[in-house]
Amino acid sequence: MHQLLARSVMRRLVSSSTRNRFMWSLSSPPSAAVIVWKEVGKPSSESVVMMSGQKLGFCGQWWRMMSSASEPPTKNSTSTVAGKEGDKEAKRSRASVERMEGEDEVAVSSYWGISRPKITKQDGSVWPWNCFMPWETYQADLSIDLSKHHLPKTLLDKVAYWTVKLLRIPTDLFFKKRYGCRAMMLETVAGVPGMVGGMLLHLRSLRKFEQSGGWIKALLEEAENERMHLMTMVELVQPKWYERLLVIAVQGAFFNFYFVLYLLSPKLAHRVVGYLEEEAIHSYTLYLNDIDRGEIENVPAPAIAIDYWRLPKDATLKDVVTVIRADEAHHRDVNHFASDIHYQGKRLQEAAAPIGYH
Ligand SMILES: [Fe+2]
Ligand SMILES: [Fe+2]
Separation of 323 CA from ligand 1 center, angstroms? Predict the structure, then answer.
């Protein structure tokens, strides 16, 4: 009863301001983005609050904006959403009764006043994903050279190269031509190195009181990108119970193996990943060949893939595999580059990290 009364009072307090919502839109080129603050039902009330051609800069500004999201903008503001300090209690109240437009249910009420601003697509429909945001989406660079190969010259390079080549044998025997299943399973492994490397660089940065040169972010981006590959593939292929068991076992072994390897020799660890990515490009090319020959049905692309890679609405599996393959080529470059930096006797932070390299 008390909760109902309190909710009713809060609604009255904030009824006018809760009508304000974020609307997100992309301008051309796609890397440029414009955020507008719009009062629902009043198209003329739009205020451009921020514009950025750089996705990453945009991301940082966005989160600052979110921190004051429940404050309505001043009439003439064109650079900030709500620079003024508002009443913190009112903010919490507004957030706790935040209602998503078009939904009948009130968002989960929280004492902490946490709620996500409404985000819409360019066409005005509600942004359907919580697992990634519009500013994390991108168009894959399909012009990247897929055939580039790092020639193994040193002993460590040869160890990395032949380790990967040997690992391919049991993988080929297990999956044969089930490329969808193969991709899904291997993406569960591919997301590990970036996370381990990023984590270890993060800890090093804390330990040594030094910057990472952007490499923490670059490696974590790679891990997240690989996880999105998995989230896409799992929409197309559902793992069987024994495949799930295999993933648990492989993750346990590979995480610890890569963790120790990165501690002992980051130069070798990055080289191994570089060669793994070369193999991934090869596997996705075989996948595409089977799609072209009609041996694998070219089904419609999952919705998550269309939004993540900004694909056309009628995109197909072939389009999805093509952009994933391009991603793998970028990972190949990043990891061989990282290994080369170590080979030159330098630390990663001495070379600019390829943040946002897709
Ligand atoms: Fe991948
Ligand atoms: Fe990759």
Answer: 10
What's the CA-to-centroid distance between 142 and ligand 1, angstroms? Answer: 15
Q: Find the ligand nearest to 185 CA.
A: 1
Which ligand ends up closest to the CA of 193? 2
Give the 3-state DSSP-derived string for 226-265, with helices as H, strands as E and coil as C.
HHHHHHHHHHHCCCCHHHHHHHHHHHHHHHHHHHHHHHHC
Amino acid found at 280: A
What CATH architecture does domain 155-350 belong to? Up-down Bundle (1.20)
Average confidence (pLDDT) over 212-226:
97
Mean pLDDT of 133-155: 95
Which ligand number lies closest to the CA of residue 222? 2
Q: Distance, CA 201 to ligand 1 centroid (Å)?
A: 22
Q: Ligand 2 centre from 119 Cα, in Å? A: 29
For the cut 80, the answer to whether the pLDDT of residue 280 exceeds it is yes
Q: Over the chain, what is the mean pLDDT?
A: 79
Residue 25 forms beta bridges with which residues? 34
Domain boundaries, the chain: 155-350
How far is Cα 150 from Cα 158, in angstroms, rounded to an integer? 11
Ligand 2: distance of its center to the CA of 199 in Å?
18
User: Of the bound ligands, which one is closest to the alpha carbon of residue 233?
Assistant: 1
